[in-house]
Structure formats: structure tokens, C-alpha cells
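2024-03-11 09:14:02 DEBUG pipeline.ingest accepted 1 chain
2024-03-11 09:14:02 DEBUG pipeline.ingest length=230
2024-03-11 09:14:03 DEBUG pipeline.predict start
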Amino acid sequence: MSEVAEAPITWFHSHAFPDGATTAGIKPAEVLAKEAEAIFAPGVAGKSVLDIGAWDGYFSFEAERRGAARVLATDHFCWSGPGWGTKAGFDHAHKRFKSKVESLDIDVPKISPATVGTFDVVLFLGVLYHVKDPFASLEQVASVTGEMMAVETESAFDPFPWPLMRFYEGTSLNNDPTNFWAPNKACLEAMFRELGFKRTEIKRHPCVRPSWRHPDLYWKRNRVIMHAWR
């Protein structure tokens, strides 16, 4: 297995290409694989998939590999916005996979049926805690969701039964000034009911194991994967 020599690209996602070459991204391959198993558990074969905040495109290409009929990858913050990422990783991976995944540079507030159409499955992974108005952003994303939305996000105060959301000031969440919000599970469920979704399932992220010995991890921070169906 050889490493892909792409000095200009700082990879976030770790890819394994058909020829055996790999990329050593900030997010390890084993973490991505476990996330994918959880996120795609309901299946995407034969469905149209929209991946919002695709970055290097791991989940876009994974949806295609799992038989999605059409995949549109979108991003703005990392592709041409103020984020430190670029679209170079996505474009490189697209060529290496000989992929048919489509791409569109568009920010979350501009997503609507008029701009992107509607999709059976919408992936909103690692994005919710970055937006300044989480409910308005979910409204935008819900408007293009035909059957199911998958959300991967930071959460906080999950043991409490009331809908709560924690605000992170400055760089207090992962030393990142673009991280703002972490809803608890009850808040996620309430927001999706408000948006007209009939059923939700929330599971702890497969790579996060909070402990009672570390109350900040359990009471104040967690990470979850949510599926919501129309």
C-alpha cells in the first residue's frame, strides 16, 4: 500500500483507492469505516443522495460504492469559503475512483429545492455544530429531503429529558472558532418533529465512549448519529 504523493493537499478524509494507494487524512480510515456502517445502515442502494459538507468526499463516494443511483456532493466552507480545506482532495479522489458523483459549491443557507432539487437521502454530517442558526439550517436541509436525513453531530447534556442546546463561546469546542452549538438528543428529536419528520433514531457515535469518570464527556459533550424519516 503506497501513500498518494499530493503535497498541495491537506487531507481530512482517509481514502483507499482501487489501485491500493491511500491518503492519510486527519480522520483515520478506521473511524470513517465505523461511521459509514452506522450512517448507511438503512441503505442507499437505488436512491438519490445529497451529501452536504462533503469536503474530501468520503461519504459521497461511499454512497456511490453502496449502490446509490445518484450522488450530489456539496460544500462551500471547505471548498472555497473561509475554511482551511480546499476541493483539491475531492477532485483528486473523484478521478482516482473514476466516480460519477456530481459536485456543487453551495453554502447551507442557499440549499433549497430550487437550487439543488430533492433527494431520497440527505447526509448532514459534521455540519450542524458549525452553523450559527441550527434550526434554520435544518429547515433548509429538510426542504430537500424526500425520505430520510442522516445527521452526525456534537451533542451535549444528553441525559436531560428537556430539549436543550449548548452554545460554545470562542474556541471552547475543539479549539475551533467555527464550532457553535451542540443540541442534546431531546432537542434533536423535538426539532425534527417540528420539521415534520415522523420517526427518528439516535445512536452514540461508534468511536465515542464517554465515561461516568469523565463527566465533561458524558454530561456536557457527546457525539451522535441520527436518522430521521419523513
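2024-03-11 09:14:41 DEBUG pipeline.report The first strand starts at residue 48 and ends at 52.
2024-03-11 09:14:41 DEBUG pipeline.predict end
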